[in-house]
């Protein structure tokens, strides 16, 4: 018996039920059934290709926003655009995609975890990491100001990334385990 992956279960349970509504919106945006079906399939493909699919708390809103973006891309490429399509794209019912309290709390917790990992870095690695990745300074500028070769700077940056990744790994594993458990629970039901 084939095993259903968590992403497949999520897609069946959370995405496919909205297909009809998505198709109706797509028909309003592009004016014909065939193009609408193509747009819906493009939305589905993007949903399945989304790396953080487990974090999408409102799949319908995500799909509608993706549909709107696809419609705008098509209008930009088109030589002739019906004014009604532009109006429909602007007024496409989009849910508020502001984070909910749980997402805010999880984000703060993740930020605290990252700050702890950053604080535990050796001073030289932390300085290079902060200046390159957070302050987005140019490598040559950092190397010149710290009197380092580019090779040494790259090694310190690489080491910092490795140490931060190791420090955050237990959290990622638990997040993935929760997503897999949720998928397995849904499959059992």
Automatic annotation (TrEMBL):
Keywords: DNA-binding, Plasmid, Sigma factor, Transcription, Transcription regulation. The keyword DNA-binding applies. Belongs to the sigma-70 factor family. ECF subfamily. The keyword Transcription regulation applies. PANTHER family: RNA POLYMERASE ECF-TYPE SIGMA FACTO, RNA POLYMERASE SIGMA FACTOR HI_1459-RELATED. Residues 18-78 form the RNA polymerase sigma-70 region domain. This is RNA polymerase sigma factor. It comes from the Bacteria. Residues 112-161 form the RNA polymerase sigma factor 70 region 4 type domain.
